[in-house]
Design a protein that fits this description.
With 321 residues, this protein is of the alpha/beta class. It has 15 helices and five strands. Strands 2-3-4-1-5 form a five-stranded parallel beta sheet, sandwiched between helices.
Length: 321
């Protein structure tokens, strides 16, 4: 098992203490934005729950029969529920099938572990079916729910789960972790600011492909605002080349450039920050809200080029003093 980031150590110690005291809850929830390592923590927890020869630090040994099965994806008592191919949500049939499976006894001396990921993408019927399973838990099973947004889960589900907290790491912890991951110091600081302190997101933004796309997006966006590029032309190009990633980055960049909130604005965003200084606050905020609206819409069957052109036109009005 790979080393957990330092900001997950407190949650891990809580888990180890529960294991040692024999008071493992029947349902666990880890909910946090992408980039904080919740799935690293979940996989470490799952491995330790199934391992028959855990190490002194609580981690799985990696060598026993249970660990071998888990690594091969063949452990009979490790159940995983996710969004199936061609689907957009976890369905009630999946949750009912999970409940039926959990009603069976695990292998002798073992426990069943079920991972539902992403739990915040269950449809309403599935969520209600899960609630029934949580109300009548098997004594030899542990349900592990993984979610980006806990607010999308039913309050009655939340009340029946023990939660991992997953705190936002300190800046020093994040920078040290990024350095260990091979990210150059100045780039790490800039991307950490872009990611609003989220180290996993900062690492993603620092990857060469993501950095190149961000640079191109900023250059083309400023050219549109300044009237050096036709907005319809740029909208058409973006619609054909990773529009979601471009809009996600632009929303982050605009937020940091216009409203840094005490964060250091990266040098690469200086041209965008200069544009926002002369903008009317309400007009700028209205454009940014619309930018976030179309981020969700480009995932649906719509004319992405028209959405982008409309938003680029709004950006030009907001940012041209």
């Amino acid at each position: 098992m790979s080393e957990l980031p330092p900001w997950l150590k407190a949650d891990w110690e809580v888990h180890v203490r529960r294991l040692g005291e024999g008071r493992m809850p029947h349902a666990l929830l880890t909910a946090a934005p992408a980039g904080l390592g919740k799935r690293l923590l979940v996989e470490a927890v799952v491995a330790s729950l199934l391992c028959s020869e855990r190490r002194e630090d609580g981690h799985a040994c990696g060598r026993c029969r249970a660990c071998t099965w888990r690594a091969a994806g063949t452990h009979p008592d490790l159940l995983r529920v996710g969004i199936e191919e061609e689907a957009t949500q976890i369905t009630v049939d999946q949750i009912r099938a999970l409940g039926d499976r959990l009603a069976l006894a695990p292998q002798p001396g073992g426990r069943q572990v079920a991972v539902i990921d992403p739990a915040d993408e269950m449809n309403p019927n599935a969520a209600n079916a899960l609630l029934k399973t949580l109300e009548e838990p098997s004594p030899h099973s542990v349900l592990v729910l993984v979610a980006n947004r806990a607010s999308r889960l039913l309050p009655t589900i939340l009340s029946r789960c023990q939660r991992f907290m997953l705190p936002m790491p300190t800046r020093a912890e994040s920078l040290a972790w990024l350095a260990q991951r091979g990210v150059e110091a100045r780039l790490a600081a800039d991307m950490l600011a872009m990611a609003r302190g989220n180290p996993g997101e900062a690492e993603r933004l620092a990857q060469p492909e993501a950095a190149a796309l961000a640079q191109a997006t900023l250059k083309e966006f400023i050219a549109v605002v300044e009237g050096r590029r036709a907005l319809v032309e740029v909208a058409s190009e973006w619609a054909k080349d990773r529009p979601e990633a471009r809009l996600d980055w632009l929303a982050q960049a605009a937020s940091l450039a216009a409203w840094p909130g005490g964060a250091e604005v990266p040098e690469s965003l200086a041209p965008l920050a200069a544009l926002t200084r002369g903008a009317d606050f309400n007009t700028l905020a209205s454009w940014w809200v619309d930018l976030n609206r179309i981020r969700a819409q480009v995932r649906t069957p719509v004319r992405t080029d028209l959405l982008l052109a409309e938003n680029l036109a709004a950006a030009r009005r907001a940012l041209r003093a």
